[in-house]
Amino acid sequence: MDFLYSVTADPVLQIVEDPVFFLQIILEGLMAGVMYSLVALGFCLIYKASGVFNFAQGVMMVLAVMCMVTVYDAGFGILLALLVAMVFMVGLSFAIERVVLRPMVNQPQIILFMATIGLAFFLEGFGEFIFGGSSQKIVPTEALHIGRDALLIPMFGSEIRLQQLDLTAGVCAALLVATLALFFQKTTVGRALRAVADDHQAALSVGIPLRSMWVIVWSVAGLVALVTGIMWGASSSVDFSLVLIAMKAFPVLILGGFTSVPGVIVGGLIIGVGEKVAELYWGDALGGSIEEWFAYVLALVFLMFRPQGLFGEKIIERV
Amino acid sequence: MVTDHKQIGEALLQVNNVSLSFGAVQALSDVSFEVREHEILAIIGPNGAGKSSMLNVINGFYTANEGSIVYKGISRAKMEPADVARNGVSRTFQNIALFRGMTTLDNIMTGRNTKMHRNFIWQAIYIGPARNEELEHRRKAEEIIDFLEIQAIRKTPVGRLPYGLQKRVELGRALAAEPELLLLDEPMAGMNTEEKEDMCRFILDVNEEFGTTIALIEHDMGVVMDISDRVVVLDYGRKIADGSPDEVRGNQSVIDAYLGVSRE
Ligand SMILES: Nc1ncnc2c1ncn2[C@@H]1O[C@H](COP(=O)(O)OP(=O)(O)OP(=O)(O)O)[C@@H](O)[C@H]1O
Ligand SMILES: [Mg+2]
Predict the structure, then answer these.
(1) Whose CA is nearest to atom 7 of ligand 1?
(2) What is the ipTM of this complex?
(3) What is the pLDDT of residue A319?
(4) What CATH number is given to the structural domain containing B187?
(5) Is ligand 1 within 6 A of the CB of residue B126?
(6) Ligand 1, residues B18, B44, B52: which to mutate, most atoms within 8 A of Cβ?
(7) B111 closest CA partner among B181, B208, B202, B178
(8) Are residues B75 and B196 in the same domain?
(9) Can you give the pLDDT at residue A68?
(10) Is B93 domain-assigned?
(11) What pTM was computed for the model?
């Protein structure tokens, strides 16, 4: 009886008793969710355009921000550091297309996936070699005008705390997604990229050069990785353990559907809010550290009942 | 019905001794023929004869193991599909290959890809000259939509269209590139009589009004005899006949191939 009470009535009572706190939790969840969405976005872009699940996305994120921080630490301005990091990611995309994707074109998806696993390990070693693996690096938040304070918003006699860093991440993510949406919907290149995502052969038949498209989409994913890396790096420090954060992208992708940008956003938010709320209100009853496994269990449930995700295309088996 | 005012010219495309195999399957063996300027050439043959493979070699999806393709006097053994498209060859597919998530208009606009000149950066930010160019392409796309009488479905995502209309949109996308050579893989497969008649009319109009050279694969003999100037017949990867519809109709090996007479 006690247990039943603590998983049903008790959480509801707590929410009703202190709704401002509940709101605080939701907001914190949304902010965390934005960060998950950002990570998953890079995977989604590449998967859409080239059907490749890019296992190296997490490493690319770390490389991008490391490159930026290294250039900044060497005494160059922040703008130059950002620019160099962008150029670095575009250069990396050219190299990946030439060395990894081009020789493997027309191979089954699993082969390409394996290739990106190899790529992930190579890039990690390569990154440690050129940027130095040992010394911890710190994102220059001041130079980037990312505040580190908390904002206090009074509400119903109590108040809500918001981290400036979280807010910045939210705004950046919104801008990024809006820009990408414009780029895909309104420009010729965006249309060509959508064409490639829809049907490779047809895209080739109208003269869209697949290789350039791959370079473009990997570059875009590289820029998304840079933004993501800065945001994640700013909340801790920059080293290759950040790669593990990319693991959080998998449940987000399963929830949102691998091919849907809106799906990835919504998926990230659901997971962000879900794990915070579950931890705080159900944590005691279910033995704590729900945050660790919540996303994965939710993903598992989705795999069972809606494998294409919230927004993914319906998977139709051909008979 | 061969139009007599039409000027059929020199060979636009020559297929020279092309062979193609997939492992043990010999899809094409030593096939040679030509496609002449402004003509409608039909490629026919039983299932698995190698017709689609032939189109795929011409547009660069497959690379012939032997032989060469000469297009507008330039010979090539291997060429990228995107480059072939840039040189004025458009095509449709046996199994419709549209951009399913896009509208009819966007599909046709994408077909104009080879005509778009502004570089990527300009296109990406979509200002100034790139914008004017976009408007010009838009006008061309609307012309094609009018020509194919598909105004009503301009803004419909093509995945939702019935099969016959999808085939028509796919033709529209191929036409958008203003091709010199149009390759059609079974443009009328799976259509009812009325839809077939429409499609025949469009193909003949394209050929007559724009002078586009057309090579098409078709199973419906009535259609083939009606619209083509010349017919090439493939069977088990070999060319067994090549000539006017009447000549081919009377050819004994063609009759045998279609009746399934065993070959020695
Ligand atoms: N990509 C491929 N891989 C392996 N075999 C292939 C491939 N494409 C075609 N083939 C084989 O080549 C032969 C010719 O096929 P093709 O599709 O060209 O025939 P077709 O004349 O177009 O037939 P249909 O009328 O059924 O469309 C067939 O035996 C087919 O199985
Ligand atoms: Mg075929």
Answers:
(1) B22
(2) 0.87
(3) 40
(4) 3.40.50.300
(5) no
(6) B52
(7) B178
(8) yes
(9) 92
(10) no
(11) 0.82
